Each structure stands twice: as C-alpha cells, then as structure tokens.
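In response to the reviewer comment on reproducibility (Comment 2.3), we provide here a single inverse folding case reported in full, input and output, so that an independent group could reproduce the run without further information from us. The structure tokens appear first.
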C-alpha cells in the first residue's frame, strides 16, 4: 500500500527501489534533506521483498563498517582483520548462504569519497547481495564522478528524495493528530521544517502540548526577513531590466540609416581611379625545373659521408612490471580474489611458487600503467608488491 507514504516523489522512488529489488540484486544510493523519509521508503521496499531465508542488515556509517557487517551476519573473527581478509570472509559467507542479503548503510555522508568507493568494491558483488547507501543532502557533492571514480555504470540508481508537497504533508498530520493541530499550525510547520516530516515531529515534541494553535508557532520574524529579501531582489531586477531597455533604445539610435549609407558611398572615388598613375609590377611565378631539382639531390647524396650515418642499435625487449596482489596457501582463496579483481583488471593470473604458495598477480606494460593499477588496488585496502620483469 502506498497510502502510508507521504509525497508523490517518495512514492515514485519507492516503486523504483521495490521493482529493482524484486527483479534482482542491486547497488543504489539515496540522498536528501534530513527527515524527508529516505530510510522509511528503503526499509519498506526491502521488507516487502524479504523472504524467510533472507537476511536484512542495517548499519550506521563509520570507518569500521566492515567489522560491524561481519558481526551482524554472525561471522565476526576474534582478532583484527584487514579489508582483504574481510572480503574473503564475506565471500565465504555468501557462498554458504542460501538466501539473499540486504545491506542498508545510513548516514553515508559521514564517510569520505575513498571510503564510499571501498564499500562499492568490497560488497558491490551483486551475487545474493543488495546494498543501498543513504545520506543527507551533503552527500551530493561527494557523488561527483571525478571524485568517486567511474562506478555509475554498475550502480543501479543515484537519486534525491524530495520533501512531500504541502497537501501530502497536511494529510500526514491530519491523519495522525486529527483536530489536535490547527491547519494554520500545519502551514507554519511546513515553512519552518522546509517540508520535512521528521523535523516537524521534532518541533512538536519541543512544544510538548496539545492542542497546538497557529499562534504557538512563531515565524513572523523569519517571514519579515523573507519579505525584505524578496522586495530587495525585486528592486534589483527592476533596475536591471530598466537598464536593458534604456541600453536597447540607445543602441537603436546609433544604428545607421541604410539610405544615408548609400549616399555616402556615392561620394567615394570611382573604382581604379586612385591607382591609375601608380607603377604596378606583377610578379611572375617561377616554373619548377624538375631536372635541376633532381641534380641537386644527387649532388647532396655524393657529399654525405658514411661516418655521419647513425648506426642501427639492436632491438631490446621492453621491461614489463608484475604486481603481486596477494599470496595464499589455499588455492580457493586465490581463485576468489582473482575472480573479484578480474572485474576491474584485465589479465589477472595465479602463479604457483616453489613453496606451494599461490600468488595472484597482474601485469603492466609500463611504469605509468603499473602506478594506476596500484592506486586502484589500494582502494580495495590491498597493498600490492611491484616487481620488474624482462
């Protein structure tokens, strides 16, 4: 039922999230003003899709989110673990889990762009896992593709949830409180909270009394400030448009009359009369002498000494770089890491060492390419080893 969702925009976003979750596993980002109901529509969509074998995990964003996630799914180790070890533990859990996992992380605006990218890389697997990040309006600048990398191609949605319209806002408070709040008070609440139902509830809790009249909510001072601002802006616009009209009139005055231009042209000297008595010499084009051109090339070749010709050096094999991503005794762990890394890098291989260690590596053709690969791997929480090979 959509009757308990207040706001046309929220209803639309809820339907999108619900249909995407119903169709398969997703990774999405939702942001908007505080108290507009972002978390409500996300949890409502997840609960609607959730089956008895599935698992829902709700986390508050912090740098240790991955440890909290393992604790919530029941696989938290007793010791500290790296992000690489977290990834392997998480993949093992998914392989053995029969249902779907829904992960919702709230207040993501508290994390840096790098940490948001880490969340995407570490749990944006889309195999039994659906992840939705929620943040306030300050999250929007962090979603710049130049800051968070080109992950949009794999993200199902990034959208803003807007506050409800006044009619929907009023419907909420009339249904919940009935005649305990005057309609004038509801209008003032809408202005004070900028349409946020959550903020409005906070204002009502501060009043701690019912019924609430319009006179209980004072916005007169703020209203005067807005009126003054509007009047100032209107005066500025009137001055600006008045200046434009004056400028256009002056411009029309300065435009030459075509008839006057024709009369002025008649006073010009007759064409050619000015240069009749001046000596004018025309330059003749030189003809290209092909035989002379060829003979000059032959003379030039005769004067070339053999010692001046540079010697041809032997071909040298280019130097390649191998980047060691991780080493494991268990071949299955190496294969899991290779499968994950191969989504972002081409040519990932597993090398068998003499001592039975399996190393996951990727090759780069030059130092610049190697640097780019290393910087991207560090976003996974992996510190790779770089080696030269001929």
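Designed residues, in position order:
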């Amino acid at each position: 039922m959509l009757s308990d969702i207040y706001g046309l925009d929220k209803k639309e976003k809820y339907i999108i999230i619900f249909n995407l979750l119903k169709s398969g596993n997703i990774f999405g980002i939702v942001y908007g003003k505080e108290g507009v109901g972002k978390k409500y529509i996300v949890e409502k969509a997840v609960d609607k899709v959730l089956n008895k074998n599935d698992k829902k995990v709700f986390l508050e964003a912090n740098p240790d989110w991955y440890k909290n996630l393992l604790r919530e799914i029941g696989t938290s180790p007793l010791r500290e673990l790296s992000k690489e070890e977290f990834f392997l533990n998480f993949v093992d859990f998914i392989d053995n889990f029969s249902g779907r996992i829904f992960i919702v992380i709230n207040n993501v605006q508290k994390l840096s762009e790098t940490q948001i990218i880490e969340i995407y890389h570490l749990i944006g697997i889309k195999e039994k896992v659906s992840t939705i990040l929620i943040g306030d309006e300050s999250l929007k600048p962090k979603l710049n593709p130049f800051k968070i990398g080109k992950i949009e191609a794999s993200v199902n949605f990034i959208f803003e949830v807007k506050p409800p319209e006044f009619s929907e806002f009023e419907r909420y408070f009339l249904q919940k409180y009935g005649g305990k709040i005057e309609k004038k008070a509801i209008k003032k609440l809408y202005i004070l909270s900028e349409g946020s139902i959550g903020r409005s509830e906070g204002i009502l809790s501060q009043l701690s009394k019912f019924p609430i009249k319009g006179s209980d909510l004072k916005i007169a001072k703020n209203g005067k400030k807005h009126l003054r601002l509007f009047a100032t802006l209107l005066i500025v616009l009137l001055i600006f448009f008045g200046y434009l009209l004056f400028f256009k009139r002056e411009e029309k005055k300065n435009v030459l009359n075509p008839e006057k231009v024709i009369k002025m042209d008649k006073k010009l000297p007759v064409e050619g009369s000015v240069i009749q008595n001046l000596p004018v010499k025309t330059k003749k084009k030189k003809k290209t002498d092909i035989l002379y051109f060829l003979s000059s090339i032959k003379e030039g070749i005769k004067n070339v000494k053999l010692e001046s010709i540079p010697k041809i050096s032997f071909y040298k094999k280019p130097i390649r770089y191998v980047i060691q991503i991780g080493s494991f005794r268990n071949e299955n762990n190496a294969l899991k890491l290779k499968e994950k890394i191969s989504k972002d890098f081409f040519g990932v291989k597993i090398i068998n060492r003499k001592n039975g260690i399996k190393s996951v590596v990727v090759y780069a053709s030059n130092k610049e390419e190697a640097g780019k690969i290393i910087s991207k791997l560090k976003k996974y929480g992996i510190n790779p080893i770089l080696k030269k090979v001929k």
